[in-house]
Specification:
The complex is a heterodimer of chains A (503) and B (506). By secondary structure, chain A is mainly alpha-helical. Chain A has 20 helices and two strands. In chain A, a hairpin with a 4-residue loop joins strand 1 and strand 2. In chain A, helix 6 runs antiparallel to helix 7. The longest helix of chain A is centred in the C-terminal third of the chain and has 32 residues. Chain A is globular, with a radius of gyration of 22 Å. The two termini of chain A are 43 Å apart. Chain B has 506 residues and is mainly alpha-helical. A two-stranded antiparallel sheet of chain B has the order 1-2. Classes of the chains: A mainly alpha (503), B mainly alpha (506). Chains A and B meet through helix 5, helix 6 and helix 7 of A and helix 17, helix 18 and helix 20 of B.
Chain lengths: 503, 506
């Protein structure tokens, strides 16, 4: 069943390629059908998933694939991958609905939808893969469609942004594949993630540290962490709305997911050595992202920088190496996916109405399109971590976790990070509210005074409602998610706790 | 008396026993060559298409004994003429590759030669001769056999490069290729004579034994070092490794495009096959000489090839430099092969898998170049602007080939690179890992110029506004179909080629 969830979109894409270009309605209907069918499989997985055993892999398939290098087609999901898989499925459906009537220039819905389906296979596959080579293939599969999505349908500076995105991520993954192969030869000639987790601890410390460095480059660029983040604002700003949404909601999670699924459980010893540095980069990211936001003139660019800050919280949670922190990180990933995805949707809709995203030219959204203005306000509050909404449960526990990091990590270091991160939340409130104030409050600027601004469209309602409901639901009942992830996270951190107790 | 003695000697000569099944591919190919030559004599101008078809069918017929040999029982090793001509899994895999590549080149050349008003019969005759040389090369286990095969595959190449004889660039291509090729042969022959002088044998297995022999008379003498050095440098010209690459861009640009495809894939593979035989059988004991040498050649080829490719505006020149860089990737495993027996196995598998994949994606790219040039009459990368708008099929194919060359999963090229990385890490030494990192960085540089072609096709407008679709003739469609299905199929199921590579290196 999981195989269907992974491969259905790509099969749908192949069929889509055969449908003639002129039959636009058929194309759209087919794409929607495929994504809905995939999401239906997701619902089945949600129902059939055994929540009592969420720490174990379920729906596993493990068959021969490339015997020559001992790589297998091994997929499965546990409590960490399930929510992310569902997130990716839901976001894709909503993106198809959102783009129903407004495909960005140069139009061509056929190619656009094919790329979207390819992206979905890549994302679903990454969250399901339990073999390093398989993981690598899916991890890379998202690059090409996203490159074209930005480069063909993007903004004025799209070609630069597209190639920058591509080169950065490819550089990371080239080092990542070297690290994977090193794991293969040092970890008992296997690419199987569960097997490697069982054997990874036997690798010598200095080798572990080196391999971790390779993995770190691959994942940190994807997240992106502080010094490697520069591709993100460009890619987000130039990408078409749907591209930005998928990029923010799902693609960034591939990096953090890689840390949780591969780097930390397989190499707990090296993770201990690296954790303080990861934490440092994470808090730099929080502060730097926030300061970057304050300087932005473009709405999308501002949201992009806020992503850097939010992913900083996620990485801080991961760096504590405690099950508390990693639970928070997974929650933060899902929450950021919902909230930032929403924010990018809104930014896209604003651009469509005003033909600009420049904050200084906007104003009075609440008067001209009150519903859109309120949704923006809602998402801004969710994003700055208002208790009762989803964003809170990603940020607050991550900060709390750094009060008491895993045994063996230096307390004062992480407590310093805690203080800095808390200051970051104040900044977050600052830049987000400031943006809301400038965009939504007051009256419209003279140039848009007379123009008629349409409020929320039907496709927008359909695309946004599930996300908004998700933000509220997870905000009020965070245990919905914590309950699923907790056992799986304990498995992830078991290597670290064993190390700590051995000392 | 001397006549009598000679006669006596002659009677004592025993004809070597020949395994006709094992030789069947070469025999069929030779028969096809003669047929093509005769048919060309009697065919009138408007019947020349017969010759092309004859050549194509001959190549397909050659595949039959190759497959039957591969499927036959037993150990698959059929050794002849005292071990200097061997048919085993290694040679069968590579013979199959040469034949298929030859067939695809025939498909690519079909309309090109016909419409360009070039000599047709002779073209296919020379092409087949060159392929015969390659097929022989795959079985040669003797210095003399290797040299004969090398000249058989090279000399038709020199002539073919100048096929557009009224074009100065083509003349330049041919002459440059010829002069440098002959010089390389001379250097190589000198090296071979040194090796022969030391070991007293031309047979690779004997040479291997003599070089491995311990003691002061063993293989660790300067004369052996010199011999190996000369031979490898000679072949470095053949595979256009930096710094022996200077002929390649000019030759590739000037030669007719199908010939360029042939040279950059088949002829280069021929050089690599010879290197496999020499290094893994003959000189394996002296990895202290060839290991670092290959390391330097590999890093230089990848880096210089990639960096110069970045600056190219002509697609064929860009592909020429890209093929130099790709040759660097194929050389990487050589550099680490001497570390351990398991590393040698991984390295040979990696190189062979890379060659198989490289053949498919590079031929595919050249097929698209030929197809597009039928409309635009230009080789400039900028002439690809907006290709997606008026020829979406070609644009998608070219995108697939370009990103496969760049090594992006899930396309075949990614597996080629993964196998190279695997060989490097199997060796596991610090130098090997550094080499791996150099290769990784280079694959990122490569992406930049490969993606620039994709950028032209998808993201820029049509330069002259001419949106008439491109008419692609049927043989070219077949060539594109074969290559793209290999690239996609191997991308999803690399086991097929990986198994071939493993068999060939076993």
């Amino acid at each position: 069943m999981l195989t269907v969830a992974v491969l259905l979109p790509i099969v749908g894409a192949v069929i889509l390629a055969v449908i003639p270009k002129g039959r636009e309605e058929v194309l759209k209907a087919w794409a929607l059908l495929v994504t809905l069918a995939t999401a239906a499989v997701g619902v089945y997985l949600l129902v059939a998933f055994d929540y009592a055993k969420s720490g174990q892999l379920q729906f596993t398939v493990n068959t021969e694939w490339i015997p020559v290098i001992n790589s297998r087609y091994h997929i499965g999901i546990d409590g960490i991958s399930l929510p992310l898989l569902i997130l990716s499925m839901v976001i894709t459906v909503l993106c198809v609905i959102y783009s129903w009537d407004h495909f960005p220039e140069p139009h061509n819905p056929k190619a656009f939808l094919i790329l979207m389906l390819l992206l979905e296979t890549g994302m679903n596959g990454t969250f399901a893969a339990e073999d390093l080579i398989l993981f690598f293939v899916f991890f890379e599969l998202v690059l090409l469609p996203m490159y074209f999505m930005i480069g063909v349908w993007g903004g004025p500076n799209r070609q630069y942004a597209a190639i920058k995105f591509f080169l950065y991520t490819l550089f990371g993954s080239a080092l990542m594949i070297l690290a994977f192969l090193a794991l293969y030869f040092k970890g008992g000639e296997t690419f199987d993630i569960p097997l490697l987790i069982a054997q990874g601890g036997t690798i010598g410390h200095s080798t572990q540290v080196l391999i971790f460095a390779g993995l770190f480059m691959g994942f940190a660029i994807k997240v992106p962490m502080f010094p490697f983040h520069t591709w993100l604002p460009d890619a987000h700003t130039e990408a078409p709305t749907v591209g930005s949404v998928i990029l923010a909601a799902v693609l960034l999670k591939l990096g953090t997911y890689g840390f949780i699924r591969i780097a930390i459980p397989i190499l707990p010893d090296a993770a201990m050595t690296w954790a303080p540095w990861i934490g440092l980069l994470a808090v730099i990211g929080i502060i730097y992202g926030a300061l970057g936001c304050l300087a932005q003139k473009d709405m999308k660019r501002l949201i992009a920088f806020s992503s850097v800050a939010h992913m900083g919280f996620v990485m801080l949670g991961i760096a504590t190496l405690t099950s508390f922190g990693i639970n928070a990180a997974v929650f933060g990933m899902v929450a950021h996916g919902l909230i930032t995805g929403m924010l990018f949707f809104i930014a896209g809709s604003v651009q469509e109405r005003f033909n600009t995203r420049e904050i200084s030219r906007l104003g009075g959204l609440l008067l001209q399109a009150p519903r859109l203005g309120w949704v923006l306000g809602f998402c801004v509050f969710a994003s700055l971590g208002l208790p009762g909404l989803a964003g809170f449960w990603g940020e607050f526990p991550a900060i709390l976790a750094s009060y008491q990091p895993a045994q063996g990590l230096q307390l004062w270091v992480f407590r310093t990070y805690m203080v800095v991160a808390s200051i970051g939340t104040v900044f977050a409130a600052g830049y987000l509210l400031w943006m809301l104030q400038r965009v939504a409050f007051g009256t419209a600027k003279t140039e848009f005074e007379k123009s008629h601004i349409h409020d929320i469209h039907i496709p927008e309602y359909i695309a946004w409602t599930p996300l908004l409901l998700g933000i509220v639901a997870l905000g009020i009942f965070p245990s919905l998610l914590f309950h699923v992830t907790d056992k799986a996270v304990t498995v992830v951190t078991s290597g670290v706790t064993q190390l700590a107790s051995a000392r | 008396m001397s006549i009598l003695a000679a006669a006596a000697a002659a009677t004592s000569f025993k004809a070597p026993s020949l395994d006709y099944h094992a030789l069947a591919p070469e025999i069929i190919l030779t028969a096809t060559i003669l047929l093509v030559l005769v048919a060309d004599l009697f065919a009138s101008e408007d019947q020349k298409w017969l010759v092309a078809n004859l050549a194509g069918f001959g190549l397909l017929a050659t595949m039959v004994p190759i497959v039957s040999l591969a499927l036959s029982d037993g150990s698959h090793v059929r050794s002849m003429v005292g071990g200097s001509y061997v048919v085993d899994d290694f040679s069968l895999v590579l013979k199959g590759l040469f034949i298929v590549v030859g067939y695809v080149v025939c498909l690519m050349a079909h309309r090109y030669v016909e419409e360009g008003d070039y000599y047709e019969g002779e073209f296919y005759f020379l092409l087949l001769c060159s392929i015969l040389g390659m097929v022989v090369m795959a079985s040669s286990r003797d210095l003399i056999a290797i040299f004969v095969a090398l000249e058989t595959l090279s000399i038709p190449g020199y002539i073919l490069a100048g096929w557009r004889k009224r074009d100065l660039k083509s003349n330049e291509a041919s002459l440059k290729y010829y002069l440098l090729g002959v010089m390389a042969s001379a250097v190589m022959l000198y090296g071979m004579s040194l090796i022969f002088g030391f070991t007293g044998s031309t047979l690779l297995t004997d040479i291997g034994a003599a070089i491995n022999a311990p003691g002061p008379n063993g293989g660790h003498q300067a004369v052996v070092t010199m011999g190996i050095l000369f031979i490898i440098v000679g072949f470095a010209f053949k595979v256009s490794a930096v710094p022996f690459h200077a002929w390649a861009p000019d030759t590739y640009e000037g030669a007719p495009t199908p010939v360029t495809a042939f040279l950059s894939v088949a002829s280069k593979t021929g050089g690599f096959v010879a290197l496999f035989e020499l290094v893994y059988i003959g000189f394996f004991g002296r990895s202290d000489v060839w290991g670092p040498l290959f390391g330097v050649l590999a890093v230089l080829s990848m880096t210089v090839g990639n960096l110069i490719a970045l600056r190219q505006t002509n697609i064929v020149r860009m592909l020429a430099y890209s093929s130099i860089a790709q040759a660097g990737f194929i050389l990487v495993p050589f550099a680490v092969a001497g570390t351990s027996p398991s590393a040698a196995q991984s390295a040979l598998t990696a190189s062979i898998v890379y060659l198989l994949v490289y053949a498919a994606m590079n031929l595919g790219a050249f097929s698209v170049v030929i197809a597009v040039a039928r409309k635009t009459r230009s080789g400039e990368i900028s002439s690809y602007g907006g290709l997606f708008e008026y020829a979406p099929g070609l644009a998608v194919l070219m995108t697939i080939f370009m990103f496969s060359l760049a090594g992006i999963p899930p396309l075949a090229g990614a597996w080629a690179k993964i196998f190279v990385f695997r060989a490097v890490l199997d060796a596991g030494t610090g130098w090997a890992v550094a080499l791996g990192v150099a290769a990784a960085v280079n694959s990122v540089i490569g992406l930049f110029y490969y993606s620039s072609v994709a950028r032209q096709m998808w993201m820029t407008p049509v330069p002259d506004g001419d949106r008439t679709p491109v008419a692609v003739p049927a043989p070219l469609v077949a060539a594109l179909g074969i290559t793209v299905s290999v690239v996609l199929a191997i991308g999803v199921y690399p086991q097929a080629f990986a198994r071939l590579g493993e068999l060939a290196s076993g």
